[in-house]
TrEMBL record, chain A:
Transmembrane segments: none annotated. It comes from the Bacteria. Residues 20-89 form the Transcription regulator PadR N-terminal domain. This is Helix-turn-helix transcriptional regulator.
TrEMBL record, chain B:
Its main location: membrane. It comes from Xanthocytophaga flava. GO terms for molecular function: transmembrane transporter activity. Residues 392-506, 777-889 form the ABC3 transporter permease C-terminal domain. The chain crosses the membrane at residues 117-138, 386-408, 441-460, 480-508, 529-549, 774-798, 810-838, 858-878. It is found in: Cell membrane. It is a multi-pass membrane protein. Keywords: Cell membrane, Membrane, Transmembrane, Transmembrane helix. This is ABC transporter permease.
């Protein structure tokens, strides 16, 4: 699983997409990250990350229906792919292993 | 939910974002950002939300990954690669390509400085000229169109024939307006205007001579859309001796004081009370008055045949004006018939049977400025044919400039051929190359447009003087002008660039890169045609200029039947009242004065004359009425003006009976059918009928412009205190003027104003002089542009044939033979152009000359001179380049091989 390297921010986004389960789109992710981490990120950063993830085939996207809320503009919903889940769990495994190797200092 | 209260992010930021993002991304990202914005507004208030929004938009200015649905789908295996549509990806590509095109175009421009300069200057001059002419034409066409319901407004005119003379007057009987308003159903409103000449207007101790005084009905300002700044538009002119003045005049007489309620003395008409101030009459109106007295203050006459007023009417919407035309015949029957019986002694039927006619017509007010040329027009009107001529000239000059552009581009194509070849080898398709060349030409056109606008601003004051208009920078920027200019420039760029673009982009790359292309020969045909067209236009304009100047010279130097040199005219001498005779005597005593005459009527300029119907007594044509010009003179008139007698004698104090005497001109004697006019008794018709005996016949003299034939004229004895004419015998005019003014001041505190008869005479032809000047300028411009093109072409040809010239020189050709070689082709074209231009110009100028009753004949030498001029200018232009090429050391041009 060396094919794709995931940055920290990308990982964060991918996780958010994963838990939102089909309801993930730019603004929602942006808002969630802010609330959860207190980080104020650029919306452009969110979008760029999403597109990169899509290029890496870790997420797929679908244009949703029109809503009255945002001037009738449609949303692009992102869902995590099988590879996406796979890479997340791989990362998680690596981390778990590493955590267990740390002497119980913390 | 009240949408209008919903806070909005800054519009410019929204636009920036939209502009930045490609089609595929725009919707989702804008949607996301809008949604977040709403959240932020609730969280932190609108101001902070806005700032945040801007910050987020700026974040999107960084490079974004190309997110293409199709690529993703292809990678995901949903679409086969063959279905990739390259062109739909073009927005981003297009921007890059455009940048590249502009860069290449700019480099090319700098590389070929000479041809670029020739191109830009030529186009700029053409566009500037065209712009100025368009301004002129638009302003001419805009006359009287600003009135509300201007399409329903008409002026009543009178047409007929009396005693063999056509009558076409712009005014009708003052009674006609009243009848129209009362008895005709389709007429919504009628207003009348009458002029009483110029006035000396006094305010306190100051007095000025004012030319623009009119008397109008009380609904005048409502009828024409001229707003009142002060005073009531309905009631301002309902009283006698009420006066409305223009803003300019209010300022002139009263400064910043409120003029309402103040009084002005209008010369012989007495005191007028100011009841209103109107906006200045717009330039594009067929009249320009500054003083509007109430119609009730004057007596316009109470008979149909001897009263007059300019009568305007507004008809109901959709009412056919032709119906009114037919009905107006009844007006003649009902009102004019009885008066004819009264004055002429015959009834209307008989009157018509003897070849007389009388009737009314209605002309649209919007047509007055360009289409009307009747007797007694309020102002010298424009002429629709000049509008046509100028439009055509504008088009031609632009055409010339565009032709240059195309010529130079195709001529320069050999230099670009290699570039095209390489581009094609590297994968450019023809469409892209067309795009590139079009971009180049549009860029060039816009550069020229910039220069042209600069030129226009520079030339505007001079042009205003020449055209008698008042254009400002604002005229250019107003309304549809600017978008129109930019759009036309774009079109011009695309059209002028289309030929070079198609031509250049069609090169076959292999041939081009092998160096086999012979552009010079291939495009020679079209280029030759274009150059020929340019010179056809130029030669036509040169011929036009020569003919106009010839005709002007002819009419100004033609024997006019009196001596217009050395005659000083003192205007408005009626203000001297009874002092006029002693004033005259005093002036007569001055050493440098030869003769003085009290003269109401003087040829050219404002004068008082009347029109009388003349009947000849004891003559075969007894019932016939001859319409003749009539005025009053004293015994000094003929010698002062140098008018010769053909028969009989001048008026004289020695013959008391002369008060019932009359002089006629030769034309009158001829038209009246009098073999021995001396002693014949004639009488005037009308309510002040008098009988006179002819004592002399004066030789014909031109008392009107050369446009008109000399008409019959009757002169009565009695003097007229309107003006004084003085024949001088001195060259020290300033001295004499101060002497006269000194004496004038003894009699009157009115302003002393004078003019010279020859100046007044020349002023009649100011319109022709203007046309002559304009023609000259445009001919110069046309030649200039054509020569610029020729220069550029010669330059290219010389460049292309450098090696040929080198070899010829090595083999022994002389410089002169090479110059001939290079110039020959161009001169051939100019000669062909001459042959085509001559008949066209002959026809056009022949038509123009028909406008003059007295005109020159078109002589062959005019065409020869124009042709030689064109050839020598062309030769000069071309030889400049050919000599340079011929003098080049062949070593230089051949060294490279």
């Amino acid at each position: 699983m060396n094919r794709d390297y995931l940055g920290e921010f990308e990982e964060l986004i991918l996780l958010t997409v994963a838990f939102m389960d089909g309801a993930a789109y730019g603004a929602a992710i942006h808002q969630d990250i802010r609330q959860r981490t207190g980080r104020s990120v650029q919306l452009s950063a969110v979008h760029i990350a999403l597109y990169r993830l899509e290029e890496k085939k870790l997420v797929t996207s679908e244009i949703g229906g029109a809503t009255a809320q945002r001037g009738g503009r449609r949303k692009r919903f992102f869902t995590i792919t099988h590879e996406g889940r796979h890479i997340l769990s791989e990362i998680r495994q690596v981390r778990e292993q590493l955590w267990q190797l740390i002497p119980k200092m913390i | 939910m009240a949408h209008e209260h919903k806070p909005q992010p800054p519009l410019w930021a929204q636009r920036l974002l939209h502009f930045r993002l490609s089609e595929g991304l725009s919707e989702e990202i804008q949607g996301d950002l809008d949604e977040l914005f709403d959240l932020w507004v609730e969280e932190m208030g609108i101001q902070k939300a806005r700032w945040k929004y801007i910050g987020q938009v700026l974040g999107f200015l960084r490079p974004l990954p190309e997110r293409k649905e199709q690529y993703v789908q292809i990678r995901n295996g949903k679409l086969p690669p063959a279905q990739i549509d390259v062109s739909s990806n073009s927005l981003q590509t297009f921007k890059v390509m455009l940048q590249n095109y502009i860069k290449i175009a700019w480099r090319n421009l700098l590389r070929n400085r000479t041809s670029s300069a020739v191109n830009i200057i030529g186009l700029a001059v053409g566009m500037a000229t065209c712009l100025l002419l368009v301004l002129f034409v638009l302003s001419e066409l805009s006359y009287d169109r600003y009135h509300t319901n201007s399409k329903q407004m008409y002026r009543m005119t009178m047409h007929g024939q009396m005693g063999g003379k056509e009558i076409n007057t712009a005014f009708v009987s003052a009674l006609a307006g009243i009848v129209l308003a009362k008895e005709y159903s389709g007429v919504e409103a009628v207003t009348r205007l009458r002029t009483e000449g110029s006035f000396i207007i006094k305010s306190g101790n100051e007095s000025f001579k004012e030319e623009h005084v009119a008397f109008v009905d009380s609904n005048f300002f409502q009828f024409f859309t001229i707003p009142l700044v002060k005073g009531n538009i309905r009631t301002a002119l309902t009283e006698p001796n009420a006066l409305v003045i223009s803003e300019t005049i209010a300022h002139k007489y009263f400064g910043n004081e409120d003029p309402i309620g103040k009084s002005l003395t209008l010369g012989r008409m007495g005191l007028f009370k100011i009841s209103g101030v109107c906006k200045d009459v717009p330039t594009n109106t067929h009249f320009h008055y500054d003083f509007f007295g109430s119609f009730l203050s004057i007596n316009p006459g109470n008979k149909w045949l001897n009263s007059g007023a300019y009568t305007y009417l507004k008809i109901e919407e959709g009412y056919p004006i032709d119906k009114l035309r037919t009905q107006s015949a009844k007006m003649v029957e009902k009102y004019i018939g009885p008066e004819i019986k009264e004055f002429v002694g015959i009834d209307l039927k008989e009157f018509i049977k003897t070849g007389n006619r009388i009737g009314f017509n209605f002309q649209p007010v919007t047509d007055i400025h360009l289409h009307s040329d009747l007797e007694g027009e309020l102002e010298a009107n424009g002429n629709i044919s000049y509008v046509y001529i100028f439009s055509v000239i504008a088009g031609f000059i632009l055409l010339l400039a565009s032709i240059n552009f195309m010529n130079l581009s195709t001529a320069g194509s050999s230099a670009r051929a290699r570039e095209v070849g390489v581009r094609k080898v590297l994968g450019s398709v023809q469409r892209q190359l067309i795009g590139q060349f079009l971009t180049e030409s549009v860029l060039l056109v816009f550069l020229s447009l910039g220069v042209a606008l600069g030129l226009v601003l520079l030339l505007l004051p001079g042009f205003n003087q020449l055209s008698g208009k008042q254009f400002g920078i604002l005229t250019l920027a107003s309304g549809w002008m600017l978008p129109g200019i930019i759009l036309s420039a774009l079109c011009l760029g695309l059209i002028a660039g289309s030929y070079p673009a198609l031509f250049l982009s069609s090169f076959a790359p292999i041939q081009v890169l092998k160096g086999k292309l012979q552009t010079g020969l291939k495009t020679g045909g079209l280029r030759n045609v274009l150059v020929t067209i340019q010179f056809v236009v130029s030669v036509c304009m040169i011929i036009g200029t020569i003919v106009v100047y010839q005709q002007l010279h002819f009419i100004q130097s033609k024997k006019i039947g009196f001596d217009k040199e050395q005659v000083l005219v003192i205007n408005d001498t009626y203000v001297l009242k009874s002092g006029i005779n002693s004033f005259k005597n005093e002036i007569e005593k001055l050493a440098s004065v030869e003769r003085v005459s009290l003269a109401g009527y003087l040829p050219a300029g404002s004068s008082s004359w009347g029109v009388e119907g003349i009947k000849i007594e004891n003559h075969a044509s007894q019932s016939e009425v001859f319409r003749s010009k009539a005025y009053w003179i004293d015994e000094d008139y003929l010698p002062t003006l140098g008018i010769q007698l053909a028969q009989g004698r001048n008026f004289s104090k020695d013959f008391p009976s002369d008060s019932a005497g009359a002089l006629i001109n030769e034309t009158a004697a001829h038209i009246y059918g009098l073999k021995n006019p001396i002693g014949t008794r004639i009488s005037t018709v009308g309510d002040r009928s008098n009988t006179y005996t002819i004592v002399g016949v004066v030789k014909d003299f031109h008392f009107e412009s050369m446009h008109q034939q000399i008409t019959p004229m009757v002169i009565f004895y009695g003097g007229d205190n309107g003006q004084i004419a003085i024949r001088l015998k001195t060259s020290n005019i300033p001295d004499l003027l101060s002497q006269i003014e000194e004496r004038w001041k003894k009699y009157s505190d009115n302003p002393f104003s004078y003019s010279f008869l020859d100046d007044r005479f020349n002023a009649i032809y100011s319109s022709e002089q203007r046309i002559g000047k304009l023609f000259g300028i445009f001919a110069g411009l046309a030649i200039f542009i054509a020569c610029l093109g020729l220069y550029g072409l010669a330059w290219f040809v010389a460049e292309q044939r450098t090696k040929e010239i080198g070899i010829r020189k090595v083999l022994g050709a002389t410089v002169s033979s090479i110059v001939v070689l290079l110039s020959r082709d161009f001169i051939k074209l100019v000669i062909i152009a001459m042959l085509i231009a001559t008949p066209i110009a002959w026809y056009g100028m022949h038509q123009w000359l028909q406008d003059f009753a007295y005109h020159i004949d078109l002589q062959w030498w005019i065409f020869v001179v124009a042709g030689l001029l064109a050839i020598s200018i062309a030769l000069f232009t071309v030889s400049f380049q050919s000599i340079k090429a011929a003098l080049t050391n062949p070593v230089k041009s051949l060294r490279n091989d």
